[in-house]
Amino acid sequence: MNVHLPDDVRRRSAALVTDLEKAGALRSESWARIFATVPRHVFVPRWYEQQTTEAGITAWRLRDDSDREAWLTAVYSDRTLVTSLDPATAEQIDAHTWTGIPTSSNTMPRLVAGLLEELDLRDGHRVWDIGTGTGYLTALLCARLGSRHVHSSDITPDLVDAARDRLAGLGHTPHLTTADARLGHPGTTTFDRILATCSVQAIPTTWLQQTRPGGAVLTDLDLGIEGGLVRLTVDEHGNAAGRFTPTTGRFMAARGDAHTYPRKPRLSYAPVTATRPTTVTAADIRANYPLRLLLAFHLPYSTVVYHSADDGTLSFQLQQRDGTWARAPITGDHPHTVTYGGTRNLWTTVEAAWRWWTEHDRPTQDQFGYACEPNGRHYAWHIPDGRRWDLKNG
User: What is the similarity comment for this entry (predicted)?
Assistant: First the structure.
């Protein structure tokens, strides 16, 4: 369906497409045409802009289309726009500002373009879009495949209803459902492609069962320290294998509640064991995404926090559920030190991973494969030499 775009929108949309092509996110003429004609502003009439208060607290200021120039500038820039906050954590600061954890967003166009190019769609493909959100990505899929081939699900009924209205206004009528997609599509449909714009710790078996043999699953895999986008091909036995994609991005975690994330209990951590020199600094880890992914293979479902000491030193801290932890300073005068506590020295593993990574010419994420089986077993491997890491579910 052809949609008439006002001149100011058409100019901005064309400029965004040019930027996405220059960045290498849009690689095909067909997707470039679709991005130029599907109006993103229809799907983001309001959003929350991140700010820092005078007290140093991250807050979200509500913006809307009352200032058309600022609204269109934001919408047709390569930015993720937060559209919903977790009501359990949201606290109103003033008439237009809240604290809280984001629960839904309109993903940055560069990442959306990369995802759709990675999906490798063909005419007639049936697609399940998990994480409807505002409905923008669903509209792009409808423009490419036609509404009858597009299914989309979200955990939040209000989001699905709003997306349905926006999509209908553009002439799109995909199959929309409200569901926890990790439990599977509520119908009996099978798909050529499943695309999830939420993160999961492991690929749900239901997704493997509902992908046609030879079909693909594209999702964000959260392994704790780091994660990434994986594109997997599913075989006739329900096994899936593929690799981490050159397109990188992190999505909000899948959840079972329509509006909020479950509160995680605060864990007790071991007392300090020692401080020692190290050859691997916090700066080394923070600057190298593929290294962090490799650390996640070595220490699956460990987590990262930023620790602030009484003297103001900020540190990068790895920690595990048994109370073991290790941290290296980001600020201060001793970057080549690590402090740790608990039953094992996590940083020894960090140093071993660093040595392996540098000895193997610092492989990028797309040199790592990932596979999962219907029984829940999953693992990663280094594609050039087959070095493998078995992953245990968190």
Answer: Belongs to the methyltransferase superfamily. L-isoaspartyl/D-aspartyl protein methyltransferase family.
